[in-house]
């Protein structure tokens, strides 16, 4: 397919260039200013849950370093910054009283960003649920959480909506449901084949109510946009057979379709309803009404790709295969990787053409007016963590990853995909959930003890991309972007 934007690899004017983080992963200050505990505070303090034995008590200490961190963003010429609010920092018990200190902290952050010309993109929920809601009300399993979440969202719109014009309700409900309620590797650590579908259903219902509140009471006067962000890997049919192509579609429907279909079509994918039977809740009429059409943009977090094929009778469907896209038996799809694919430290396959294909699939299936990549990036260890004479740490593999994935984004735009922005995960190394700080995604390195931020080459490279609104003219692509 020909691209109108191919050479030089310039992006559309108005393309949003950003970087992303989340509250639990960077803030620390876990009991400062009256903050309530979250399920991640409890989970990380439970022996054995975090590979390194760490917690997010301090994390990057962003709570105390917000002005330096904003200056660091300004240094890069960042146009937008995606971060999340900690619900228990704002509403310590998850309902009722609001913490003035919490409001003050986020106000200060938002004002600092705006003073530097950086647009805040706020995620309301990036997994740190108030612990009280888990202990007293069963967290996302309780249908009442939809109204509690809408009430919390209302507080946020009221206090910050004069300055925040880009809202994301939920980050990756797939991860909340599968890793939190299916595999038990994220908070609250539940292991079940039933609960993920209930939790996901209530996450969708909560989103619907929060968006309804925004549209009903704030959107006209505040003039912002609101949506959800979902994660999805690409699933490439292993062969051209009808069975493998159907397997790839099924895998995508169990992954992204699970959330995007209700948002855009008002119903779960047919294959999920068929395979799951009674385990998949049904939408009540009022919920369906609030959920369908409840997103002003399509938020996507994308990292990796696997092949999909129809399993042979004795194939093991390993639900531990990273990024299997759900509960393997429910999908009945075999997922494999090409041995030749490079992998990041997370074990995720580096396949830039998968990004282009996924964007095309989304455009074709949902036809959104705007898609934003809310996260993309890579974890790699530093070969040499010492900065060179220019004060920069070399990270050639991360630079190559970003260059190749942004190249794929550029091609997708040429294909006709309405991609309007890109947020790199992450601004700096942070607390990578069950991996602790062992996985480093940062454009900036964060030193283990001092927590000093040191730029990596990728930060400088990305700053150049932002400054020129495009990719360097002669790319040193390691992974050819396949035409297939
Ligand atoms: C996302 N998967 O997590 C999160 O939004 C970030 O908080 C996180 O740091 C980042 O990606 C890197 O991991 C994911 O299993 C967790 O497909 C799991 C998956 C995808 C994203």
Characterize this entry briefly.
The chain has 484 residues and is an alpha/beta fold. The protein is built from 17 helices and 13 strands. Strand 12 and strand 13 (453-455) form a beta hairpin.
Report on this structure.
This protein has helices at residues 23-26, 39-44, 62-76, 87-90, 100-115, 131-137, 145-160, 173-181, 195-217, 219-222, 242-265, 270-276, 285-291, 328-331, 352-366, 396-415, 457-468, and strands at residues 16-20, 80-84, 119-125, 166-171, 225-231, 234-237, 298-301, 305-309, 334-336, 371-376, 419-425, 444-446, 453-455. With 484 residues, it is of the alpha/beta class. The chain has one domain (16-476): Glycosidases (TIM Barrel). Strands 1-2-3-4-5-7-10-11 form an 8-stranded parallel β-barrel, surrounded by 5 helices. The protein has a 3-stranded mixed beta sheet with strand order 6-8-9. Helix 3 runs parallel beside helix 5, helix 8 (173-181) runs antiparallel to helix 9 (195-217) and helix 16 runs parallel beside helix 17 (457-468). The protein is globular, with a radius of gyration of 21 Å. The structure holds 4-nitrophenyl beta-D-glucopyranoside. Residues 22, 25, 171-172, 175, 231, 301, 303, 323, 375, 425, 432, 441 line the site of 4-nitrophenyl beta-D-glucopyranoside (PNW).
Features of the shown structure:
single chain; 484 residues; alpha/beta; TIM Barrel; 13% strand; binds 4-nitrophenyl beta-D-glucopyranoside
Architecture blueprint of SSEs:
Elements: E1 16-20, H1 23-26, H2 39-44, H3 62-76, E2 80-84, H4 87-90, H5 100-115, E3 119-125, H6 131-137, H7 145-160, E4 166-171, H8 173-181, H9 195-217, H10 219-222, E5 225-231, E6 234-237, H11 242-265, H12 270-276, H13 285-291, E7 298-301, E8 305-309, H14 328-331, E9 334-336, H15 352-366, E10 371-376, H16 396-415, E11 419-425, E12 444-446, E13 453-455, H17 457-468
Parallel strand pairs: 1-2, 1-11, 2-3, 3-4, 4-5, 5-7, 6-8, 7-10, 10-11
Antiparallel strand pairs: 8-9, 12-13
4-nitrophenyl beta-D-glucopyranoside (PNW) binds at residues 22, 25, 171-172, 175, 231, 301, 303, 323, 375, 425, 432, 441.
């Amino acid at each position: 397919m020909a691209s109108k934007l191919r050479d030089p690899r310039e992006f559309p004017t108005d393309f949003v260039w950003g970087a992303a983080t989340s509250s639990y992963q960077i803030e620390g200050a876990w009991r400062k200013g009256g903050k309530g505990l979250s399920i991640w505070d409890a989970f990380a303090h439970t022996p054995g849950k975090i590979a390194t034995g760490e917690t997010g008590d301090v994390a990057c200490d962003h709570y105390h370093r917000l002005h330096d961190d904003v200056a660091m963003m300004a240094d890069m010429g960042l146009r937008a910054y995606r971060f999340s609010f900690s619900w228990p920092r704002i509403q310590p018990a998850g309902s009722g009283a609001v913490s003035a200190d919490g409001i003050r902290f986020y106000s200060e952050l938002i004002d600092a960003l705006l003073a530097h010309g950086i647009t805040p993109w706020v995620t309301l929920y990036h997994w740190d649920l108030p612990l009280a809601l888990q202990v007293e009300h069963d967290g996302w399993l309780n249908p009442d959480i939809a109204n509690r979440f809408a009430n919390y969202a209302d507080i946020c719109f009221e206090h910050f909506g004069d300055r925040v014009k880009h809202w994301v309700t939920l980050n990756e409900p797939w991860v909340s449901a599968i890793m939190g309620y299916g595999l038990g590797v994220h908070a609250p650590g539940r292991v079940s084949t039933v609960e993920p579908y209930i939790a996901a259903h209530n996450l969708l219902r909560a989103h619907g109510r929060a968006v309804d509140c925004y549209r009903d009471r704030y959107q006209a006067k505040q003039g912002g946009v609101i949506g959800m962000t979902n994660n999805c890997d690409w699933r490439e049919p292993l062969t051209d057979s009808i069975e493998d192509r159907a397997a790839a579609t099924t895998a995508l429907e169990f992954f992204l379709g699970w959330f995007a279909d209700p948002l855009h079509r008002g119903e779960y994918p047919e294959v999920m309803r068929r395979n799951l039977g009674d385990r998949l809740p049904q939408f009540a009429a009022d919920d369906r009404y609030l959920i369908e059409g409840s997103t002003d943009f399509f938020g996507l977090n994308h990292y990796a790709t696997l092949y999909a094929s129809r399993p042979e009778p004795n194939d093991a469907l390993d639900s531990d295969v990273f990024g299997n896209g759900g509960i393997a038996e429910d999908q009945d799809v075999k997922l494999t990787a090409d041995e030749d694919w490079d992998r990041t430290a997370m074990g995720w396959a580096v396949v830039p053409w998968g990004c282009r294909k996924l964007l095309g699939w989304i455009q074709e299936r949902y036809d959104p007016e705007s898609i934003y990549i809310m996260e993309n990036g890579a974890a790699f260890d530093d070969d040499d963590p010492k900065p060179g004479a220019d004060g920069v740490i070399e990270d050639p593999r991360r630079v190559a990853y970003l260059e190749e994935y942004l190249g794929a984004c550029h091609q997708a735009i040429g294909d006709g995909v309405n991609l309007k922005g890109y947020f790199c995960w992450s601004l700096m190394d942070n607390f990578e959930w069950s991996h602790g700080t062992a996985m480093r995604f940062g454009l900036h390195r964060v030193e283990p003890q001092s927590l000093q931020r040191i730029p990596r080459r990728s930060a400088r490279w990305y700053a150049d991309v932002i400054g020129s609104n495009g990719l360097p003219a002669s790319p040193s692509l390691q992974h050819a972007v396949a035409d297939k």
